[in-house]
Amino acid sequence: MIKFKDPQVEKLVLAAFLKGPEFWKEIPESWFEEELHRRCYKEFKKILRPPYSTFPTPDIIIDKTNDPDVKILVLELKEINITLQELNVRIQDLFDMFCSRKLFDVASKLPEELQSKNPREIVREKISVLSELVNPFGIKESNREFIYDSAVERWEYYKGVESKTIESTAIPFHINDLDYYTNGGLRKTHMMLIVAGTGEFKTLTKLSIAYNYAFIEKKDTMVLTLEVPGSGDQRDYQRMIDARHSLLEFKDIVSGKLNVNRGIYREKLIDIVENKYPLYIVDIPDKATSGDVIKEIELYFAKTGKYPDAVIIDYLNEMEPLGSYSSSSEKFKLLASELRVIARTYGTRLITSMQLNREGKKIKEGEKRDLENISESHYVTNPFHVIVFLHQDPNGIDAATNQLHWTIRKNRYGQKNVTFTTFANPAFCYVGDRKIIYPGYEQ
Predict the structure, then answer these.
(1) Residues in domain SF4 helicase (predicted)?
(2) For 231-255, what is each residue's pLDDT tens digit?
(3) How many angstroms separate the CA atoms of 269 and 251, rounded?
(4) Four-way CATH pick for 7-140: 2.60.40, 1.10.10, 2.30.30, 1.10.860
């Protein structure tokens, strides 16, 4: 039977944190039920949190803390022995106790809520609350500190990035101008929105970015497809990736008419099997919610033991939020906010797209296209760090010359309202630079 609390488990976890930097983990304070243990952990966070030249000893902590009860507790904790393997088990125990308290709290309020709320509304609320209880390190608490508290840490981080001993969290898109204007690519926990009209490369652009992330950067990449072009078969999305990888025409792969190029296709499929490029594709045949995104990320963790570096959703118009809404504007505002929470909780990058709305379609060629015209509500844009608008001329010249124009309308990393042009060839499922990049070499 799961306990609501166990002071001994809490002591073992605190004792482990004192043993060395490999034992230190930052967890929510709410996991500790005992008030003294919570106070002690707060002191630990001030002193044990990196960076440090040498890991602080228990005596240093006793010397630095002003709480007499914590001093006595640390004296007791430093005599307790615990291994790294035991710590992992105790962290899980601590998390399970927190979950049991949270579940009891949710369950105890249900009879009263059933009297005043719609059952569907209750279900949506509880999914949102309980979805946090699947990943011990996915729960985040608000961080409160003075600006000077982490000044040394920020300087150490800067020196690490400058000397390249610490890698930037940006993953490059491998689209030259996009990487230039975003100062290296999309960062961890950040989101990007692609906006375009029908047939203006929303899916192929996301597919090309997914390919570059997984095949070139070797980053764990999850694609959630809610609408596969053409037949709607998930295998067709995989064949589109095959077309990009082999630079053979998608229609020839689907129809079995590769002829002399069949050997190239076979060779590229063998390459995919041997190199195991980390591209994970999930096809959801019906409308998905942000809860489905959480579920798939957790299933990915169950399968691989890690969370994806990037989640690419095709596309936003086919999704529903968990929260209730009364208008399409509220719907997309809520949906974008829920996705932002997911990206921050799981430390992943999130890329999705949206159909240009009717007002955006009415804008004449050459007229300014602003954020208000890119969706059912410009409020959807608030959580996104990068918003790009894809477009071609209405006369068919761009399509005939395989050109796609990008306009960056929002850019937290640098200059916005800039336009550049890339190559776009739907036959080969390719969007990007004219100098095509393959895994491991360039052509």
Answers:
(1) 172-423
(2) 556 788 899 999 999 999 999 998 8
(3) 17
(4) 1.10.860
Query: Is 173 a residue whose pLDDT tops 90?
Result: yes
> If you ran DSSP here, which 8-state letter would residue 426 be given?
G
The three-class DSSP label of residue 364 is coil
**Sign, Cα dihedral of 196, 200, 206, 208:** negative
Whether omega for the bond prior to residue 41 falls within 30 degrees of 0, making it cis, is: no
Amino acid at the residue 2:
I
Q: Which amino acid is at 41?
A: Y
Residue 240's identity, in one-letter code, is M
Among 73, 85, 79, residue whose Cα is nearest residue 22: 85
Q: Is the pLDDT at 417 greater than 80, yes or no?
A: yes
Q: Could you tell me the CA-to-CA distances from 369 to 138, 252, 408 in Å, in that order?
A: 38, 37, 11
User: Which residue type, as a one-letter code, is found at position 107?
Assistant: A
Q: Model-level pTM?
A: 0.68
Residue ranges of the domains in the chain? 7-140, 169-442
Q: Can you name the CATH fold of 169-442?
A: Rossmann fold (3.40.50)
- The candidate with the shortest Cα–Cα distance to 389, out of 369, 412, 411, 364, is 369
Distance between first and last Cα of the chain: 61
The one-letter code for the residue type at 10 is E
Give pLDDT, residue 136: 55
Going from the C-alpha of 5 to that of each of 16, 87, 89, 274, the distances in angstroms are: 18, 17, 15, 48
* Rounded alpha-carbon distances, angstroms, from residue 324 to 166, 239, 333: 42, 37, 11
